[in-house]
Amino acid sequence: PAPITRLVPVQGLGCEAAVGSLVPSGSREFKLCSKHTEGKHPLHAIGFNFADARYYDVFATAGGNRVTTYRGLPDGNLAVLQAYIDADDAQSFYTLSWASDLAGTPLLVAAGSNRVIRVINCATGKLFKRVLLAMVVQ
């Protein structure tokens, strides 16, 4: 039978071939070294900062009305960098993602049950933007 589709090389930003070794170097072997609980609420999301290589050991968690950033230390411990606690006790954060502005400043985007997306500037520790999502009913 004739092929259904034809594969062609893709061109554009982000489509170039990755260069590197597929053989692990052993410099970043991972093993369980500690467990961490955060308050009385379950964690719904964890996100590592792959947006900037300078922060390869920084991650964030979301759960309850709180989003917290951590740094993984070489000895296996965790250091709390910043904690953002929403004023609304009924808020429950379910998702988060890392981003950066044009200057390379790390931004943390978090959203939850009250349909508000919060963009947090991690360099200043302040709320950068708050976006309310409207619900359309047809």
From TrEMBL:
Keywords: Repeat, Transcription, Transcription regulation, WD repeat. It comes from the Eukaryota. InterPro entries: PcG_WD-repeat (IPR051243), WD40/YVTN_repeat-like_dom_sf (IPR015943). PANTHER family: POLYCOMB PROTEIN. This is Uncharacterized protein.
